[in-house]
From TrEMBL:
A GO biological-process term: proteolysis
InterPro entries: DNA/RNA_pol_sf, Rev_trsase/Diguanyl_cyclase, RT_dom, RT_RNaseH, Viral_Replic_Matur_Polypro
Domain of life according to the entry: Eukaryota
Keyword Nucleotidyltransferase included in the entry's annotation: yes
Organism (species): Austropuccinia psidii MF-1
Protein's UniProt name: Reverse transcriptase domain-containing protein
Short name of one Pfam family: RT_RNaseH
Length: 198
């Protein structure tokens, strides 16, 4: 079975505060023994005679080493936050592309795209993203049934874009096309087949 170990402090447990206090005392043991710092749970108090000493000791406690790895991570985060995909407005005269994917026993995710001319160049842009977690009974579905649910749910949620429009569905489930045309005794699949064909 193994051992269960917390990776963060679970506040609300009876001894959590005492354990956290002990860890803080251990981390700042040297500074506490030198007599210029007091730690109370998550509050760190630094007290010295002069302002200059105070600032110097604050830098000693709040050190931050800027390594190449941290700099690269910071730049990557900045890039991702400033270059997020911009959603475009739908043009109902152009065909849509519906990308669907079901993460087995986890959730459903869909993205509705469209290829439009942006700044004189054809560009595939995102109109919307939708996703949701599977409930307990859906998490027990097989892979093919989950993919079929994914398509059914996408068509249901995005009907205001797709109803009467031309669109293609892109999926990583090669069996989905044959699943929609086969005779099945599964009531869920039968209901989804009928709804999808409408």
């Amino acid at each position: 079975m193994g051992i269960y170990e917390y990776t963060r402090m679970p506040f609300g447990i009876k001894n959590a505060r005492a354990h956290f206090q002990r860890m803080m005392d251990t981390i700042f043991q040297e500074e506490i023994l030198e007599g210029w710092m007091v730690v109370y749970i998550d509050d760190i108090i630094i007290y010295l005679e002069t302002w200059e000493d105070h600032v110097q000791y604050i830098y000693r406690v709040l050190i931050l080493e800027i390594t190449k790895e941290r700099r690269d991570a910071y730049e990557r985060i900045k890039y991702e936050l400033t270059n997020a995909p911009v959603l475009i407005l739908p043009d109902f005269k152009i065909p849509f592309k519906l990308y669907i994917n079901a993460a087995f026993s986890q959730g459903l995710g869909e993205a509705l795209h469209q290829r439009q001319i942006v700044d004189g160049e054809p560009t595939e842009g995102v109109i919307c993203y939708i996703s949701r977690q599977l409930n307990d009974s859906e998490a027990r579905y097989g892979a093919n049934q989950t993919e079929c649910l994914c398509l059914f749910w996408a068509l249901e949620k995005l009907h205001y874009y797709l109803e009467g429009a031309v669109f293609e569905v892109y999926t990583d489930c090669t069996a989905l096309k044959s699943l929609l045309n086969m005779n099945t005794a599964n009531r869920h699949m039968l209901r989804w087949q009928i709804a999808i064909q409408e």
